[in-house]
Amino acid sequence: MNTTRPNFIDQLHNAWHTQNSLLCVGIDPDITKMPAPLRDMPAERAFFEFGQAIIDATAPYACSFKPQIAYFSAHHAEDALQELIAYSHKHHPHIPVILDAKRGDIGSTAAQYAIEAFERFKADAVTVNPYMGFDSVEPYLAYSDKGVIVLCRTSNPGGSDLQFLNVDINGQSKPLYQHVAHLVANQWNATGQCALVVGATFPNEIKQVRDIVGDMPLLIPGIGAQGGDLAATLAAGLNARGTGVMINSSRAIIYASNDEHFAQAAAQAAQETTIEINRLK
Amino acid sequence: MNTTRPNFIDQLHNAWHTQNSLLCVGIDPDITKMPAPLRDMPAERAFFEFGQAIIDATAPYACSFKPQIAYFSAHHAEDALQELIAYSHKHHPHIPVILDAKRGDIGSTAAQYAIEAFERFKADAVTVNPYMGFDSVEPYLAYSDKGVIVLCRTSNPGGSDLQFLNVDINGQSKPLYQHVAHLVANQWNATGQCALVVGATFPNEIKQVRDIVGDMPLLIPGIGAQGGDLAATLAAGLNARGTGVMINSSRAIIYASNDEHFAQAAAQAAQETTIEINRLK
């Protein structure tokens, strides 16, 4: 529907190899953390200029970009988000763009969110929440070229409140996040468009998910500002071919500096992270 | 923060009594279902004119309005949503407006979504998803006048995929949605700002939730187009004082007619629903 880009999973496999990178650069533009000249602009313009500079600077070191929609929506800057994704697609067409939106709603409403993500913003993939079940995810899968990245185990403190509860499945007890991994791998992923979010806070749990889902791509936040252990994360998350993961870093890269050399600092942080990932993998 | 309206829970209690209504009118503007003159307008203008007509027509029969953000976001119509909420607050100040957004993300991102809901759109309450746990809900609670309505048991077919799984809590087995009700009632609701979404598809489950949460307000979708049983829903959901619920109806009211008399038809459908609710309660 209304895209000429390859499908997301192919884009990702290509980017892992041609970029020699497993790094996903998270774009969470917070005006209070930007360099002074940007802080003084209208949010809409600052967000685009900041994002554009980050994208150009980090593109050599990234397998994907992941803008977080809340940062834009909080400040009436959806147009900047849309322009940013279009800019990335035009200037860095080989790098997929994931819209981090974590939507979840009944089918008829999910169909509207899918329009938002794929027709309005033209993202290559979107993050979604599994709490409302399969029919809340299905409308995104109707876009056969797009990726659908389901929350499984999140890296925040409250991630354990529900996801770590033991659920009873046919007499077997397992944590809810593992059941979500099973559901997605064995039922929701019939079209091969799915991936999972698994936080870096608990490398042992990444290993459990990897064992359940085979080769499925994992988006792994929680490195950097959130403090996850990179070596343990890679040991747990890589697939048999040494890929299969997007190691997300947002704040540690995009706010590496808040002076006028922020883009150069971001490039350096992205390069160092990618080198470190490749050294450890 | 930047509001002069009473707190949401007080607004709701007042509306239940002064309006003599338990009806929440869901506003899901779908351009394909609108009358011909509106269908031919730019989406932004059609959404505002449609929403304004629905709000004015149904206000005498409603205890709350609930616009669904996806319908607006899919069509670049956030400004119409913002104007609609401002219009409702100005012309029907006694009726709280719930932003149905079902957001869920880590704390720093949730803080941005809270800005979106409460500072940008100035909603009186917002729906949120519990899958990422308490720190994903906490930033909304920082707005002490606002309501935070947590998804518990949803009315869609996939609602059972996760919510109906039995979880083990201190050796006791209970469905996940009941644990969410416990968590919200006993831990997350320390400030008294919370409510729960519990679908009308399973009245027995509404009863279970009511027994867990005491007087907490329940937002109950699934009546009307989704087919829930109104009498059984009321018997299960009402609190001891004969209130405590917002019975949501969207499509059955706002698309009661798609000719030029749609607002009059919506008023009639809202009035009939309110009368039926009051007869059965």
Description:
Two copies of one chain form a homodimer. Helices cover 46% and strands 17% of the residues of chain A. With 281 residues, chain A is an alpha/beta fold. The first copy, chain A, has a single domain (8-280), classed as Aldolase class I (TIM Barrel), CATH 3.20.20.70. In chain A, the strands form two sheets. Chain A has an eight-stranded parallel beta sheet with strand order 2-1-10-9-8-5-4-3. In chain A, strand 4, helix 7 and strand 5 form a beta-alpha-beta unit.
- Describe the oligomeric state of these chains in a short phrase: homodimer
Total E-strand runs of chain A: 10
CATH architecture of chain A: Alpha-Beta Barrel
- Assigned CATH superfamily of chain A: Aldolase class I
What's the helix count of chain A? 13
Helix percentage of chain A: 40-55%
How many domains in all of chain A?
A: 1
The major pleated sheet of chain A works out as: 8 strands, parallel
What is the CA-atom radius of gyration of chain A, in angstroms? Answer: 18 Å
Average pLDDT number of chain A: 95
Structural class of chain A: alpha/beta
Question: Span from first to last CA of chain A?
Answer: 37 Å
From the 3D structure, determine the CATH topology of chain A: TIM Barrel
- CATH class group of chain A: Alpha Beta
Order of strands across the biggest sheet of chain A? 2-1-10-9-8-5-4-3
Query: What is the helix/strand order of chain A?
Result: HEHHEHHEHEHEHEEHEHEHEHH
User: What pair of chains forms the biggest interface?
Assistant: A-B, 54 and 54 residues
Shape of chain A: globular
Beta-strand residue fraction of chain A: 15-25%
